[in-house]
Write a structure and sequence with these properties.
Residues 1-20 form the signal peptide. By secondary structure, the chain is α+β, with helices and mostly antiparallel strands. Helix content is 21%, strand content 28%. Helix 1 packs antiparallel against helix 3 (129-141).
Length: 142
């Protein structure tokens, strides 16, 4: 009986992984409110499942904090925030929590991923509450 209860909690803690996720999609270069998620940016919530792309299934949200180090043409030296739906699992790249660092010409970027609705609005990504609760219940029952 104990095994069935543990398996049930574990299953429900993971079930959200397969469901469509809702993420904010905005870029502070085009919408300055995207940096601090003021009221205008909060209107940029999209259902990632409704995005049309025949080759990808969107399963997570992303937040990129981009540091543009030099002015190149019309692109000014600035810090940008980009929020979007994502489809590539990058867990093997995580360096700090759910984030990793990458760099290229003139750009340094922190990329953070999360799998809960509206999770890319936060200043840092949050642990799934359902996953955490199910883990605690399973640990308690063991």
């Amino acid at each position: 009986m104990k095994t069935i209860v543990c398996a049930t909690f574990f299953f429900f803690g993971l079930i959200s992984v397969g469901l469509a996720v809702k993420c904010y999609e905005c870029n502070s270069h085009e919408m300055p409110e995207c940096k601090d998620m003021s009221s205008k940016a909060l209107q940029s919530l999209v259902d990632c499942d409704s995005k049309t792309n025949d080759t990808h299934v969107y399963t997570l949200c992303r937040k990129l904090h981009m540091f543009m180090d030099e002015q190149v043409g019309e692109n000014l030296k600035e810090n940008r925030i980009h929020r979007a739906c994502g489809y590539v699992e990058d867990e093997d790249m995580y360096k700090r929590g759910n984030c990793y660092y990458k760099s290229g010409y003139n750009t340094r970027t922190w990329v953070c991923s999360c799998k809960d609705d509206e999770c890319n609005a936060a200043s840092t990504t949050l642990v799934s509450l359902a996953g955490l609760v199910s883990l605690l219940v399973v640990a308690r029952l063991m």
